[in-house]
Amino acid sequence: MKSKDILNDLLTRNVEDLIVRSELEKKLKSGKKLRIKLGIDPTGSRIHIGRAVPLWKLRQFQDLGHQITFVAGTFTAQIGDSSDKLSERKMLSSEEVAENFKSYHAQLSKILDMDKVEMFHNGDWFEKMRLHEFFKLTSLFTIQQMIERENYAKRIEANKPVGLHETLYALLQGYDSVQMKTDLEVGGTDQLFNMLAGRTVQKAYGQNPQNVMTFHILEGADGRKMSTSWGNCIYIDDQPLEMYGKIMTIHDELIPAYFKMATDMPMDLIAQIEKDMSLGDNPRDTKASLARAVVARYYDSRTALKAEKAWENQFRAGEKPSDIENFKTKKGTAIDVVALAFDLSKSEARRLLAQGGIKIDDEVLKDTERKITKNCLLQLGKRRYKNIQVS
Fold this sequence. Notes:
CATH class of the largest domain: Alpha Beta
CATH superfamily of the largest domain: HUPs
Radius of gyration: 23 Å
Strand content: 5-15%
Shape: globular
Distance between the termini: 57 Å
Mean pLDDT: 87
CATH architecture of the largest domain: 3-Layer(aba) Sandwich
Number of helices: 19
Number of strands: 13
């Protein structure tokens, strides 16, 4: 790929907002080694392929020699970012934050060379910040600026509470950029306000304002925004067969978006796929090609082909997988065991039960009070199994 094409792909593929493009292009063409920031508030323990979109963009920058920096919100995650929420977020304890962060490194290593990544924890500076320094920071913004945000405005209109601590999140995130000397911050579209706040904070502290890059949102298999709370996620640490099977269930109209956002297939080939689909190509075959590409991205091509063969045996021939994982647990209600075995919330487990999506030893679970007291085969949906071993 020519250098001009590399730059264009870097600045356009999957990018929703780029502020300010001319500034960023100038920095890149100057040969400057940029400091590029991604903030992680570890309020969950797994990364789905939608949240991986900015990570793959960071991989592009890393391959070009730029410095990737992560900030773990060990302080701000205890507040909770409500940028995309219409209700107040539960404040996490420092212990919960630390526990959630444990699995992040292994997942991030699937995409980035973590030995070259600088890692920061914003508790290192916020826990030492004096009150007069905090007031200097808060003086940069007005209450009007904070509460005019759409999600806060809707909550105020609905007479729902907006915590004062929530309104401070953006300026705290902006101060992270000061401490990390950030040139470019990346994140989801819901983070645009927070990242723009970083430009304001950096100016006030005598730094050049960072550029900001946001990304398109990848929808889940059901067509809604991919979200852990909705249980429609494809996680980057899903087992190959499970990952392959989830891709095969996405709506046909999502296939091009998944090729663009969840693979590195060249854009001209994706355009040809869209054209072929419009002319009548079998979406099932195209989706199989997509599933192979996604699994290969997080594992390898051989593993992807093995997953495809296993999926075809399982779902075309009606066979169960031969390598079902064992899960040890104590006696309890089926809902509790399902939630633990498949890493779901109890509300997600109840929703699946109501939809007839849970089976115990090939029998559909209907009773919310049923207990599991002996070893059994637990099935979730069409493709997820666990051998339950009761101790």
